[in-house]
Write a structure and sequence with these properties.
The protein is mainly alpha-helical and about 100 residues long. The protein has one domain. The chain has 3 helices and no strands.
Length: about 100
């Protein structure tokens, strides 16, 4: 379930996005492209941290059920997805 990406992968993604911005003539920007790439990097990392925290909260909610639900079971997966979706909806984010 987790969206774990290494710093190198996030750096690579931010480079791809910044290159797209730089090469797209329809986009206009005033900042240095290096600063834009760095900002994109931090935005992706922030989103990953938020998602990681939501996953931890969802796991905790499944764990404190009245009845023990074994991790990895179908029921556990359903509850976990439900709780993650609820938390993301509170933040106005989508998850599939």
């Amino acid at each position: 379930m987790s969206l774990k990406l290494s710093r190198n992968k996030v750096n690579y993604l931010s480079s791809l996005v910044s290159r797209y911005i730089e090469n797209n003539e329809e986009l206009d920007y005033n900042a240095d492209i290096g600063n834009i790439r760095l900002r994109i990097f931090h935005l992706i990392m922030d989103e990953l941290r938020i998602f990681e925290q939501i996953e931890l909260e969802a796991k905790e909610r499944v764990k404190i059920q009245k009845r023990t639900v074994p991790e990895g079971s179908r029921e556990w997966e359903i509850l976990f997805r439900k709780y993650v979706s609820e938390e993301l909806a509170k933040l106005g984010k989508l998850w599939d």
